[in-house]
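Exercise (ungraded).
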Amino acid sequence: MTASPEVASQRIAAHLRAEILSGRIGPGERIRQEDVAARLGASRLPVREALRMLEAEGLTEHAANRGARVPALSMRQVQMLYRIRERVEPLALTDGLPHVDAALLDRLTELEARIEAGTGVGEFLALDREFHLLTYSTCDQELLTSMIVRLWNSTQHYRRAYLTITGMSHRWIAHAEHNLLIEAMRRGDPDDAERYLAGHIRRTRTELSRHPEVFV
Amino acid sequence: MTASPEVASQRIAAHLRAEILSGRIGPGERIRQEDVAARLGASRLPVREALRMLEAEGLTEHAANRGARVPALSMRQVQMLYRIRERVEPLALTDGLPHVDAALLDRLTELEARIEAGTGVGEFLALDREFHLLTYSTCDQELLTSMIVRLWNSTQHYRRAYLTITGMSHRWIAHAEHNLLIEAMRRGDPDDAERYLAGHIRRTRTELSRHPEVFV
DNA sequence: CTAGGATAAGTTGGATCCAATCCAGGATCA
DNA sequence: TGATCCTGGATTGGATCCAACTTATCCTAG
């Protein structure tokens, strides 16, 4: 989230991206070009460009002459996105693992401490996202990491809805998994790291599958 | 590839997509908005929209005030795309496997026969792409299949360059793998199907890794 | 002769206006 | 009463014009 990109379309895209990821614009909600243009003091043209950018990130969908809206995903679709994550994210983890240094491990440990200390849903969402994306930060494969970010973006709303419904109980499981992941990374063990990460995502998926009310 | 979409931006996007996938516009090549607009008899605006659509498909990349170009990928990047394919495509295969019927198997068998009978590089490229995408056609998970199409799009040029350099020799290996894949699908065996498919992609990747001259 | 900077041409980004399309509401006719 | 057609407002798609940026060229200074 840069302060103010020089290009209007990028600034507008950043604004809308934040509004969607924070939940202020929810799934199924329509985004009218003129509304956004008036609200951000620009013409409709850069808004159109911004919406196209967001479409590339999986944050909006378009239909000709019908405008843009935030996609409303079904349980089945989100389950598939998680299954894709289970296979793709370990790839980024093991690919970057040789370049993980002590400083990064310290940052991860400190992040996990803040996650365990936190209480709010919004705080957990942000820190958990930061934690996992940080474990992929040494990967240096733009095509892969942007794909992972897209997967996180598309599922962000349902993660928040799940956490809001179920509360923050039983978070100790995720904490244990995170710590095991850090430990495997510290050992530089790609097999264990991949196993813990895939298990972590898979468990999240099966837990989510028990709460269809997230998708009504 | 519809005949003529009612919306100009979609028509232009389809045109450019065909030009990029066919190799008439190669990696690193710049795409000037005005050129395309003049050539297709439209203003620059729908061209801008079309370029954004193609960006979402991984066919172009943009930089502010610098225009669009077809990405020139390095060996390392293409290798990673293949590793992603190894993990993601089996997911689509096994997910759609229960809905595979005899008619689809017949079409695959016939396609494979045409692949084995063919000689030209362009013909092989088109038929091979059609073959594999057809094995995923029963998946009905738009998010997954569009991701796979993006992966094929991004690597299309390097597949053609590889085939052009190495010629059509040793294609019998791919034929054998295709036939084993069809056979596993006929048995409805997800484990074998996934294994054959992953192996097929992996072998292609390792063969490509022996030809760095593709990327000069 | 080279390095640096000013300048001009070429290209993209943005604003405004107009056209085409979609959707909801109501009128008309069987 | 019901369905169909029409019409009006609302919204998006497209064209033209102007502004901003990038880049290459050429000139000047060292």
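Further reading is listed at the end of the chapter. For now, observe: Chain B is about 70% helix and 5% strand. The longest strand of chain B covers residues 61-63.
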